[in-house]
Every structure is written in C-alpha cells, then in structure tokens.
Design goal:
By secondary structure, the protein is an alpha/beta fold. It is built from 12 helices and 9 strands. The longest helix has 22 residues. Bound molecules: adenosine-5'-diphosphate and magnesium ion.
Length: 312
Amino acid sequence: MWETGFSAKPAASDRGNAHVIVCGNEKGGSGKSTTAMHIAVALLKQDHRVATVDLDGRQLSLTRYVDNRRRWSARGSLDLAVPQHFHVPPARRDSVSDAESEEFAHLSRIIAEIQTAHDFVVIDTPGADSFLNRLAHRIADTLITPINDSFIDFDVLARVDPLSHEIVEVSQYAAAVREARRERRRTDGTVLDWVVLRNRMSSITSRNEQKIDRCLRDLSMQLGFRIADGISERVIFREFFPIGLTALDDFEEHVLGSKPTLSHLAARQEIRQLLSALRLPTDERGHRRADARRRYAETVSRPLAMPDIFAG
Ligand SMILES: Nc1ncnc2c1ncn2[C@@H]1O[C@H](COP(=O)(O)OP(=O)(O)O)[C@@H](O)[C@H]1O
Ligand SMILES: [Mg+2]
C-alpha cells in the first residue's frame, strides 16, 4: 500500500545541485531498471558526472546491470563509461522505525556524497511501496514511470472501466506521486517533472492501443504528467543486460559480441527521443528551463522555511 505521509523531509539545499532522476512505479517488469541504465549511460556519454542508486534490494537488477557492464568492459578492454554506483540494502532491524532510520541515514549519506561530485543521480526503485521508495519520490526532480503498453498495466496509474475505458479512480501510486509533488513544492519550490513512458510497445497499432493512448492523454491532464514517445518491445533489450550494454553504446561487433541489426539502430533512435523528451538540464537552456519552473512554483505557492533534513 502506498502511504503518502513522511516524517523525514530531505531539502533541496541539502542535496546540492545534482539533478535527481527517479524511475518508479509499483509494478515489476515494466522497465524501470532498463530505463535507469539507459539514461545513466546516455548522460555519461554526454560527459556528465553520473551516479546510480539501486533501492531495489530484492532484485538488485541495476546493481547487476552495472556489474555486468564493468565486467564486459574489462573482458574486452572496451573502456566503457560506468556510473558510480550505490546500493541501499533494506535494513533488518527489530522495529520498523529503527529500520527506516537506518535506511534514511544510509540514503542521506549516499546523497551527500553524490551531490557535490555529480551532475545527475539516477535512482532505480523497487516495484513495491517501501520507506526508501517513498523517500526517493520525495527527492526526485524528474520522475519516469514506465508502463507496459496494455490496459492490464494501466492500473498502476488508474482503474479504468473495462467497457467504456473511462477512468474510474486514480491509483494509490498516482495519488502518492501527487502528494509527493505537493510536499516538494511546499518544501523548496521545486516542481517535480513526471514523465510516463510507454514501454514494450508492439509494432502493430491496434484499436486497443489507440484507446490506451486516449485514456493516457486524459489521465495526463488529470494527474499532470507528460507522455514520452514509447519504446518498442525488442529482444535486444533483454540481450543487453547480461553484458551491461545499452542501445547507446558502440555497435561494433567486438563491443556488442554479435553483429548489429536494424533493431539496434531503431532502439537507439527511440532512446535518443526519450532523452530529448525528458528535457533534462543538460545545457544552458535546460538550466534556464529548470530555473523558470522553480520561479513559477514560487509564484504559485511561496515555499515555507526549509525543514531540517532530519526533522522528525
Ligand atoms: N522495451 C523492451 N523490450 C523487450 N524487453 C524489455 C524491454 N524493456 C524491458 N525489457 C525486459 O523486461 C524485463 C523487465 O525489465 P526491468 O527493466 O527489469 O523492469 P523493472 O525494473 O520495472 O522490474 C527485463 O528482462 C528487461 O530486459
Ligand atoms: Mg527493476
């Protein structure tokens, strides 16, 4: 169950200037870890200083993805750029509050280390509600929610009438994001940019997909997210994982371990489109846009005094 209440409030002033990108939703297998790795590598390739954080202590997919990349790079002397990676394991304590305190302290230490030395931090989250997951959503500047391209996965955002496809009720996750966004704006005037990414799209446009499209557009207005162009279902995304590669790496045979295909090129194009849709503050224009967003938020609601990061 997604809860929206927080006792701990990290403030932007404590995070420094690193832009925080969170990949989140409450469903496993929708592409959070894959997306996180692709964004991290894309930013590394643009010479940004990038850190990655894995909060999914059970799956550890991003941690393994980064490890695989390091290993594949060393094995072929490929010199692949690798993000500085952190992993926050779930704390095992007798009481929930002790465990949460420990997790909070751990994540705070990591963020403190990242904030001065990196331009971007990409946080991968588990597909379930947890204290750490809620915390991550509270410190996000950009939230990317990949959803599989079907009505079955749509319920991560809202419950939809099976016949009319009318939106019956927004999901707990969507409500939690709305609350996290509200809190964040009150705290330091930052407007969370929420981007929903349709993933694993089939190449055939069916009537069902057109309906999903319409529903998603309705919901985007209700909930205030942007919709990024989708990523297609491609076998190569599964093949990338064990060798730690992404659609943005060189497609030479000695790097890829096999001959590149048209699918590789098409995937690269889609990921590039995603990156540009994210409008991250990667250049002067991006910084100006982020500043404008912040100024806008200030006019909408004056931020309250900054709470202490460890305020109870
Ligand atoms: N666009 C895609 N096409 C094909 N397979 C994909 C795609 N995106 C993700 N996958 C695969 O789906 C599985 C789940 O993806 P993952 O990124 O681990 O999701 P999550 O982190 O949300 O659980 C992985 O095996 C991954 O390789
Ligand atoms: Mg994952």
